[in-house]
Structure formats: structure tokens, C-alpha cells
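Hey,

Quick one before I head out. I ran the complex with flavin-adenine dinucleotide overnight. Inputs first:
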Amino acid sequence: MLSIEVNSEPQKEKQTALSMAQRMKQPPIVVGSGPAGLFCALALARAGLPPIILERGKDVDRRQTDVELFWKTGVLQTNSNVQFGEGGAGTFSDGKLTTGVHGPYVRRVLEEFVNAGAPSEILYRAKPHIGTDHLREVVKNLRRIIQEHGGEFRFEHQFTGFSTENGRLCSVRAVRAQTPEHAYSEAASAVVLAIGHSARDTFSMLLENHIRMEQKNFSVGVRIEHPQEKIDQSQYGKFAGHPALGPADYKLSAHLADGRGVYTFCMCPGGRVVAAASEENHLVTNGMSRFARDERNTNSALLVSVDAKDFGGDHPLAGVQFQKNLERRAFALGGGGFIAPAQLAGDFLLGRESCGVGEVGPSYRPGVRWTDLRGLFSGEITRALQQAILLFGQKIEGFSSYDAVLTAVESRSSSPVRIWRGASGASSAAGLYPCGVGAGYAGGIVSAAVDGMKCAQTILTSN
Ligand SMILES: Cc1cc2nc3c(=O)[nH]c(=O)nc-3n(C[C@H](O)[C@H](O)[C@H](O)COP(=O)(O)OP(=O)(O)OC[C@H]3O[C@@H](n4cnc5c(N)ncnc54)[C@H](O)[C@@H]3O)c2cc1C
């Protein structure tokens, strides 16, 4: 592991934390060990205020076993999967560390990654990525650093409720290993909600407890897969395959006449499409690559923006319901067992069912069922996806080729809700701090980690 100077223990932060530790009777609690939760916990622990981390999923090694089994057999563990468990949603990803966020925290996040074993090239590359293979190790090392500074990890502990006194948080409730007899409550005055965008039960619980939240627009669509070789040829021309170049990527977007945005997202060169469900009978896709990005296909999400008009109501959780309906339809269209519905791009454009594989072998496991994806979406979303394929085909040769594979459904591009937070950084209950992607304040690994660090700073200076 490369050791680099991480500028994360400035004396002032530490002094503030030490005097606050004397004032705060209980350690802070961080819910979730995704990038937001981990970096919040790391910043708190380094500053001398080590937190308790409640994570509903398992540690990364046991989680990996569950995920591999799911991809092989379609048997899902609802609390240990691609969304839930140590490292959060990005653990089985390409580990792209590109972000639209700027400022000193971004550098600190990258330095902490390197300190925890990520390749040092992420400090200077324009489009840094570390791959799922490095990420799993980095996540474990981050845990060790937090523990060395006094932090406590509780895996398979789900945050299920909280109590307030005079509008201020005073305790949390949790349940261990999903067994009601293992429910307990813990006094707490500062709790960070770094729960990610898939914790639908937790969103509902928060709303029932009058935590202010609102709908947030997001995007839905499919994964599109091409042979990496074709994308290399389109992007590099005669230099395609040159060892210094690495597998090519792309990022495409357009605004359609009806006002909808269409774009590609989370591209995984030399990677695979993964089953990313976290609920029974709900099918979800996403993408993942190893650091080497050495698989045959390239894939990316092909997305259409959706809003309250698509959700059919202004209830704060209407977007969640919209997602759920899509995921249930995708599950049914695949025929069950988390087999994903898939279609050739050419058939999707022509409006006819696909009957079998073409030139591109789909990488999704446990498998795909050839069908007609037009049954999945509204007419408007289908037309937007069709236009996107044709438009992007004008920019990347081969993008709209007949045999490109569409696998559905890509439904969890970002959070469908935003948990309100005021100028103090807290939610409508004082002491409860919404953080990261699930709360609606970040959009990827690095921005979630940055939000986690900022949230720690808020706690360190405001309690
Ligand atoms: C397959 C895949 C590939 C991706 N690829 C990339 C990429 O290459 N680059 C990128 O920037 N982003 C990528 N993303 C998105 C990125 O992973 C997320 O934006 C990021 O992980 C969000 O961080 P977070 O900490 O806010 O939430 P999450 O990472 O979702 O973490 C939330 C954690 O909270 C836990 N939790 C939820 N509810 C509770 C509860 N009630 N009690 C206890 N614990 C709870 C969950 O188990 C989870 O571990 C990918 C996502 C997926 C699924």
C-alpha cells in the first residue's frame, strides 16, 4: 500500500472534535457504509470523534459471496447485494472517479483512496477509475483505518427508527440481522443518513416520521452493449488497439424537441452488465469493470430524464413507485429468476420482438430473455430512447448497429427523492444529517464521498 501524506488531521479540526467529544455524550452514528458514510466516518474518526457505523449489509467479503451466487443462480439476498453492504452501491462498479464537483475535498478523497491502496495514477489521470477489483480492497482498508482511530462497524445492523425530544434527535432504533428479537435502541444526538438511493423502506420510515422530503427528477432506460473493438475503431480510427490508448469510452447527450434529455451514463469500457436488484421480483441493471477493463464488450446506461409528469403525482415517494413499477414489469418480461429482458437495437428501432442473439453476446448474468422492450416503457420514453440511439449513432460509428444489445431496466441512475436539509446541514429533525446520493446531494462515488466529508465537518463544528 502506498503511503501518502493525507491532509486530513489539521490541528484545528482535532481540537474542535476533542472539545466536542467532551460535550457530546454519545458517539455520532453513521448509517450506511457507502462512499458518503465511509468518508464521513473517516473524517470524524481522524478528527478524534470516532463514530459507530450501522450497515444493513454484510462486510465486503461475505457480500461478494452473496453477489456472485445471485449472478449465478438468481437467488437474491435482500440485504446483501449490489446495492447494500460494505462499500455501498459502487463496490461492484467500474470505480470511475470522475466528478463534476470541485474544491479541496475532491483531492482529499482521491488521496484517501490512494492511502487505502488505490493505484496512485488516480491522482493525475483526467478520467481516473479503479475498477471493482481494487475497490473491494480499498473499502476494507478504509474500514481498518476507521477502526484504528476508534470507529466501530456494525454489519447487518439496519437503522429502523428514531426518537426526538423537543424536535431534537435523542435515540435511534436498529435491528440486527433482520430479526425482530434483535431490535435495540441507542442514545444518539448526531446521526448521519448516508443510506443511498435504494433504501426504500428507510425513505418510507423517515416520511412516516415527518422528515421533510421531496420528489427528485431522475432518469430511466436500458444498458446498451457493443463490442469494445467497434467503439475503439470509431474513437481511435487507425490507432485502435494501440496498447498506450486503453479501451475507448464515450459520453453522449442530446436534448429532444419534447424537452426530454437523453444521455449515456456510467460507461464501463471492457466491462459487463450486472444484475443490481435489491428487492424480490424487481429487476435492475447496471455496469461494472475490472481495473484492466479487459472484457470483450463495452456498456453504458442509455437514459431518458423523467419527472413528476411520468410519476403521475406529487407525493414525495411517487418517483420511487414509478421505479418500482418499471422494475416489476422488467422482472415479469424476463420471465422470472432475475433473467433480464433484452432486445437487439435494430429490432427496438423497427418495433419488432427479438428472437435471439446477434453479433454481440450479452454479458448480463444469470441470463437474458429476448423480447420486445417497448412493452416496458411509456410510448414517450420508448420514442426518446429510439431517437437517442439514432442520434448517438451519428456521433459514434456502430452505436446504432442492428446487433447492439439493450438490456433492461436501468432504473436507479440517481435518487428519486431529496431529503431536505437546512442551512445547519440537518434535516427537519435537529441532529439528523441527510448525506450523499440517497439524500439527493451527490451523484457518484467521489461526490458522495465529498458530501460525507462535508457532513463530518458540519457535525464537528455545530454540536
Ligand atoms: C453497479 C454500479 C456501478 C456504479 N458505477 C459507478 C462508477 O463507476 N462511478 C461512480 O461515481 N458511481 C458509480 N455508481 C454509483 C455510486 O456507486 C453511487 O453514487 C454511490 O455509491 C453513492 O454513495 P452513497 O454513500 O451516497 O450511497 P450508497 O453507496 O448507496 O451506500 C448506502 C449504504 O447504506 C446502507 N443502508 C441503506 N439503508 C440502511 C439502513 N436503514 N440501515 C443501515 N444501512 C443502510 C446500504 O446498505 C449501503 O451500503 C455505480 C452504482 C452501481 C450500483
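Residues 131-148 form the longest helix (18 residues).

Talk tomorrow,
K.
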